[in-house]
Design a protein that fits this description.
Strand order of the largest sheet: 1-2
CATH topology: Non-ribosomal Peptide Synthetase Peptidyl Carrier Protein, Chain A
Number of domains: 1
Strand content: 5-15%
CATH class: Mainly Alpha
Order of helices and strands: HHEEH
């Protein structure tokens, strides 16, 4: 029973279950944001891009070809995810500050 008790103490002390749930939720949220960018935001941008297919957008500089379409989608993904995390942390810190008073 000693090893099981130590393991349970480890899970409680380091809040492993909460970390696992947060990791899974983060993965799901990442997929949701990627779908938002790919299926809703980028089709609007595709109207602006000549030819209409943003995934194949290429910047040609001499002999170099830069595939900027997927990179633009990744940048938009990152900005949306960073903004959501910022808002969540800001909300959590606000709640923490009011709890200390």
């Amino acid at each position: 029973m000693g090893m099981i008790h130590e393991f349970m103490d480890f899970l409680k002390k380091y809040q492993i279950i909460g970390l696992a749930v947060a990791f899974i939720m983060g993965g799901a949220a990442g997929k949701l944001v990627t779908a938002l960018v790919t299926d809703i935001i980028m089709p609007i941008i595709a109207v602006i891009v000549p030819g209409g297919d943003w995934k194949t957008a290429v910047l040609q500089l001499g002999p170099f070809k830069f595939l900027i379409g997927d990179f633009a989608g990744a940048i938009i993904d990152f900005i949306i995810i960073a903004a959501v995390i910022f808002m969540i942390v800001k909300f959590m810190m606000k709640e923490d500050a009011t709890a200390k008073r």
